[in-house]
Automatic annotation (TrEMBL):
Residues 7-134 form the Putative oxidoreductase/dehydrogenase Rossmann-like domain. It comes from the Bacteria. This is Oxidoreductase. Residues 300-314 have a biased composition (Low complexity). Pfam families: DUF2520, Rossmann-like. Residues 151-276 form the DUF2520 domain. InterPro entries: 6-PGluconate_DH-like_C_sf (IPR008927), DUF2520 (IPR018931), NAD(P)-bd_dom_sf (IPR036291), OxRdtase/DH_put_Rossmann_dom (IPR019665), TM1727-like_C_sf (IPR037108). Residues 300-320 are annotated as: Disordered. It comes from Streptomyces termitum.
């Protein structure tokens, strides 16, 4: 008979636990530190400036003292630098220049834009530099800790620290994805294009639906956008549908006319996305070349008659 499996050790009983500090209590830092606490590490200090950041720290890291950044580094084995991208290089140089960085200390930043090289001033002071970027949008609440389960992290670190970086990501419930130093800006641009612009598009769509009289635009869009996202992730460009992919120039012209009347601020974005959609639909054989000319004319500002009842020879019957 097989012996019963040994119980999993409690988090607090596991070896090599680290004290954790957070410099910058924005939406990301407290959530990551709270996740590390669940893995058995011990948050010991956080720096926060605004009232909102202090509230986040108090909610996600209760009983963890709020101190100056230099004090965070003095107390922590693992320091999370979770500040805006543009502030990161100056922060690293400042901390290293004042002697706050200790040899052997793990210095982690969460910027998508930068790799490990931005931490070179800390590395010269003896620190171990890691770039761990969670590919996730954060709210600054406890729900973020749950969302880290299965979240991909863009990982960049010196080769000798690769295993340590990946282990930390796994402890936070994430999935490490190795990103080369030189590829970090492109990696970050890809995420911003997909996630940040999506928020803008959805917000604009909800505003337009309200203008059109829809009382619950979120309820209307939820199933549609969920299906579109699922199809896009599964099939890429083959998932394209709608009037641009079908070459319905009259419908697109009607869209543009209505947007100019009711929401002129959305026209430029609509036209830019429609042009890109048309290019991709053409390249993948979804948009027939003979239908593309009128469509591209509309997108260039040469709008045909906006009657959408169909061409004189009858409807084409294209799949939607």
């Amino acid at each position: 008979m097989n012996a019963p499996a040994a119980p999993e050790p409690r988090a607090e009983d596991r070896p090599a636990r680290l004290t954790v500090g957070v410099v910058g209590a924005g939406r990301v830092g407290p959530a990551l530190a709270a996740s590390l606490r669940l893995a058995g590490h011990r948050p010991v200090a956080v720096s926060a400036v605004s009232d909102a950041s202090r509230r986040r720290a108090a909610a996600l890291l209760p009983d963890v003292p709020v101190v100056e950044p230099a004090r965070v580094l003095a107390l922590a084995d693992l320091v999370l630098l979770t500040v805006p991208d543009d502030a990161l290089p100056g922060l690293v140089e400042g901390l290293a220049g004042t002697g706050a960085v200790r040899p052997g200390q793990l210095i982690v930043h969460t910027s998508g834009r930068y790799g490990a090289r931005v931490l070179d001033p800390a590395r010269r002071a003896g620190a171990l530099p890691l770039a761990l970027h969670p590919a996730m949008t954060f709210t600054g609440t406890a729900v973020d800790v749950q969302r880290l389960a299965g979240c991909s992290f863009g990982v960049t670190a010196p080769e000798e620290l690769r295993l340590a970086a990946e282990a930390l990501v796994i402890e936070m419930g994430g999935e490490p994805e190795w990103i080369a130093e030189e590829a970090r800006p492109l990696y970050h641009a890809a995420l911003a294009l997909g996630a940040n612009h999506l928020v803008t598009l959805v917000a604009q769509s909800m505003e337009l639906l309200r203008t059109a009289g829809v009382t619950a635009p979120d309820r209307m869009l939820g199933p549609l956008l969920g299906a579109a996202l699922d199809n896009a992730l599964r099939s890429g460009d083959a998932a394209l549908t709608g009037p641009v992919a079908r070459g319905d120039a009259g419908t697109v012209a009607a869209h543009v006319a209505e947007l100019r009347k009711h929401a002129p601020g959305t026209v430029a974005g609509y036209l830019a996305m429609a042009r890109t959609t048309a290019d991709r639909a053409l390249a993948h054989g979804l948009l027939r070349p003979e239908l593309a000319q009128d469509l591209l004319g509309v997108l260039a500002g040469d709008a045909p008659d906006t009657d959408t009842t169909g061409p004189a020879d009858g409807p084409r019957g294209d799949d939607r």
